[in-house]
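Module 6 notes. Inverse folding takes a fixed backbone as the condition and produces residue identities as the prediction. Think of it as a translation problem where the source language is geometry and the target language is the twenty amino acids. Below is one complete input and output pair. Work through it position by position during the lab.
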């Protein structure tokens, strides 16, 4: 029936595949044009921290800004005023191709002018001291421009950053190599640019490496082209699906096409080897049908378990990780459809030559070596099990030391232009990572404006004691000295502050809503070096909350709110760790249930999970022992590794049980499964792992880390499936995989041949005799 199906419909399948190529190409193009890497939007809208941040933006407006400076940008540099004038939006030209991305611009010079003018009339020295570390550097002379983004600029940060470069270089004559850009907007744009560049630059090398390795493994140009056609079709179709379902690419989603490509390639190589076995053993006309019949169960189960492993990432609250899990799981299931339609159709239309002498000779020699390798594993099964399970336990303990990090500054190498610019800005101007402290005074508070501004000043001083905080801005920055103890002078100051509250509203340091007042202390924390984000937030809360508690200000209706990038990143890091743990546990449990149902044996299902958990436990446990933090690029690899390990396990188990059902004893079944599976397992590992290794050269760290971890995990999975799994099957634990109907050998305990400790030498026809 299968033979007649592919004979009849092969041309139609190919015609449909060709007809959908333009749609897939357009969808892939559209997917990569859409990108959103705003870390503030990584958490769900119903999270308390997200809700607080959105309320903050409603109170004080969007706080998206870019810091622009350059070598020689000082208070007396005429280019600074020229730059500010050219960037500032003009009512006469609202659609200017550059200024439409910006809403306002503030420079060190303009800030000094505000502070020294009415109503507060600070002297120049006081004014510089107030904004030192935020708009003016430690030397009191180097300065910068803070450029706020318009709604259009917020929607397209890459275009906004490119516009800033164009204005500075083309219109103001600032040398490109001297220009320094920093700030949350710039880093988000950098993530957009570098994440897509990482794929665009290295995907072709990865594909070339995979093709070369595949040719050395498969030795058939026609077969290699067929396998890569299917894998490429699956990868691009999965990417196009993102566009047509309204999704967006981000620094995590850019890995989806590469992952689907690797998984599809692995499945295609397995099916191709089933086809070659069928050519060698049977009627060439039935080879495609036999390959599909033999490969359907393990490939379908592999796709299902891999989809479970990937889909488990949907429990993460980090939106890019959740999207990655959903889209990649759907992509794996889609690739299963392509695998059993497009590849068999190609093989049916352009079959291999079944009479190739080289293929026959290599198969015979290879079978003998594989049986010998299986014999070695069986002979040393106890040391293999002890070392394998010991590694799981020892390295697994290191999982308790695993840490996570999604600090944007860690996404780029130290030599990256983005990091070089950020370091320069921190050294010459000050830190730029925002953390906001809001002092909320409810309607019952009896504190007057003087008391409130004075409290803001005291809190600002406490915030400055945190070593990672380099600068602060608040309403106190724009207020006169508040150290007067004279009652009359205090009343005058209070009246003056009341009459000029609009200054605080204008500069975004005071807002009112629902009868409450919100006074803002805006701190800037370091993004390189120093403590982690959770340490910064913990220190800051301790300083402020202790100060307020000591003065019983809660009785005066004063509460605090902490928001900004630092609290959001801290919560996102916690969610990243929780998502890693829960998604892996969920994937493990669901895949274990699938194994138990397939085997109809609880003990067998649990035993079978040991080699599958081996790669993730060993690799991630070692990362814990080495104190290497997990980022968004490496988080997904744990569930991916589990799915890939199960893939090879199911192929091995399929041949093992088939051999048992044909009457072989357990050790002979292990050797037969080894003969059938070791080569395609090794081939898929080499092709996929070496292709992933190409991404290690990427300057975008999440992609580079993903490629490196996948390389290591794939080889660890191969060790688990070709050493630990056969050793477990050869031990007493392997008895649970036998059934009373599995031939005459079911009740026999196999023994090794005396002397060699290996399985018996193959007889002339290449078939091992049953061990009695």
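Target side of the pair, the amino acids:
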């Amino acid at each position: 029936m299968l033979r007649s199906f592919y004979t009849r419909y092969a041309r139609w399948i190919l015609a449909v595949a060709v007809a959908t190529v333009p749609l897939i190409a357009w969808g892939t193009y559209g997917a990569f044009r859409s990108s959103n890497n705003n870390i503030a939007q990584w958490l769900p809208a119903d999270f308390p921290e997200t809700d607080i941040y959105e309320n903050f933006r409603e109170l004080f407006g969007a706080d998206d800004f870019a810091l622009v400076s350059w070598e020689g940008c000082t208070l007396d540099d005429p280019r600074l005023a020229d730059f500010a004038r050219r960037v500032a939006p003009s009512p006469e030209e609202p659609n200017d191709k550059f200024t439409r991305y910006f809403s306002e611009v503030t420079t060190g010079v303009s800030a000094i002018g505000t502070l020294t003018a009415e109503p507060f009339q600070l002297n120049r020295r006081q004014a510089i001291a107030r904004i030192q570390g935020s708009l003016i550097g430690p030397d009191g002379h180097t300065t910068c421009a803070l450029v706020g983004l318009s709604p259009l600029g917020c929607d397209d940060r890459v275009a906004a950053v490119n516009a800033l470069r164009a204005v500075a270089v083309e219109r103001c004559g600032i040398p490109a190599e001297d220009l320094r850009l920093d700030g949350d907007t710039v880093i988000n744009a950098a993530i957009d640019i570098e994440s897509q560049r990482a794929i665009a630059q290295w995907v072709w090398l990865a594909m070339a490496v995979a093709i070369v390795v595949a040719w050395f493994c498969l030795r058939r140009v026609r077969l290699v082209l067929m396998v890569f056609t299917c894998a490429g079709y699956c990868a691009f179709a999965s990417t196009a699906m993102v566009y047509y379902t309204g999704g967006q690419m981000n620094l995590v989603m850019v890995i989806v096409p590469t992952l689907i490509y690797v998984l599809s390639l692995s499945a295609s190589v397995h099916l191709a080897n089933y086809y070659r076995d069928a050519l060698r053993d049977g009627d060439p006309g039935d080879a495609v049908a036999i390959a599909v019949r033999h490969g359907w169960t393990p490939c379908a189960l592999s796709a299902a378990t891999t989809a479970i492993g990937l889909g488990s990432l949907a429990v993460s609250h980090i939106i890019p990780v959740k999207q990655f899990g959903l889209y990649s799981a759907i992509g794996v299931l889609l690739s299963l459809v392509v695998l059993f339609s497009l590849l068999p159709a190609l093989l049916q239309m352009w079959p291999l030559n079944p009479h190739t002498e080289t293929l026959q000779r290599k198969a015979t020699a290879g079978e003998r070596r594989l049986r010998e390798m299986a014999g070695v594993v069986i002979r040393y099964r106890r040391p293999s099990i002890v070392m394998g399970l010991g590694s799981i336990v020892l390295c697994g303990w290191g999982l308790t030391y695993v840490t996570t990090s999604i600090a944007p500054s860690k996404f780029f190498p130290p030599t990256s232009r983005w990091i070089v610019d950020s370091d320069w800005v921190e050294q010459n101007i000050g830190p730029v990572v925002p953390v906001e402290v809001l002092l909320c005074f409810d309607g019952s508070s009896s504190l007057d404006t003087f008391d409130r501004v004075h409290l803001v000043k005291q809190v600002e001083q406490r915030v400055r004691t945190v070593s990672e905080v380099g600068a602060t801005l608040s309403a106190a920055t724009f207020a006169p000295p508040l150290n007067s103890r004279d009652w009359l002078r205090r009343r005058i100051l209070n009246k003056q502050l009341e009459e000029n509250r609009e200054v605080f509203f204008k500069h975004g340091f005071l807002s009112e809503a629902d009868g409450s007042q919100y006074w803002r202390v805006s701190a800037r924390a370091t993004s390189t070096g120093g403590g982690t984000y959770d340490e910064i937030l913990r220190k800051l809360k301790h300083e402020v909350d202790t100060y307020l508690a000591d003065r019983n200000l809660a009785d005066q209706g004063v509460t605090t709110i902490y928001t900004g990038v630092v609290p959001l990143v801290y919560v996102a890091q916690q969610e990243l760790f929780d998502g890693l743990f829960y998604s892996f546990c969920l994937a493990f449990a669901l895949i274990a249930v699938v194994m138990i149902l397939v085997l109809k044996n609880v003990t067998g299902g649990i035993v079978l999970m040991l080699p599958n958990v081996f790669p993730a436990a060993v690799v991630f446990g070692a990362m814990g022992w080495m104190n290497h933090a997990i980022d968004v690029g490496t988080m997904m690899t744990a569930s991916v590794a589990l799915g890939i390990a199960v893939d090879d396990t199911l192929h091995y188990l399929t041949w093992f049980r088939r051999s048992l059902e044909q009457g072989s004893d357990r050790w002979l079944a292990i050797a037969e499964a080894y003969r059938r599976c070791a080569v395609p397992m090794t081939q898929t590992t080499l092709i996929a792992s070496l292709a992933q290794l190409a991404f290690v050269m990427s300057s975008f760290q999440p992609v580079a880390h993903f490629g490196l971890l996948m390389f290591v995990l794939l080889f660890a999975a191969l060790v688990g499936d070709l050493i630990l799994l056969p050793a477990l099957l050869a031990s007493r634990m392997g008895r649970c995989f036998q059934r009373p109907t599995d031939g005459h050998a079911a009740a026999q305990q196999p023994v090794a041949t005396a002397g060699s400790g290996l399985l018996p030498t193959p007889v002339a026809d290449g078939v091992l005799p049953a061990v009695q």
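Reference fact for the lab report: The CA atoms of residues 90 and 538 lie 43 Å apart.
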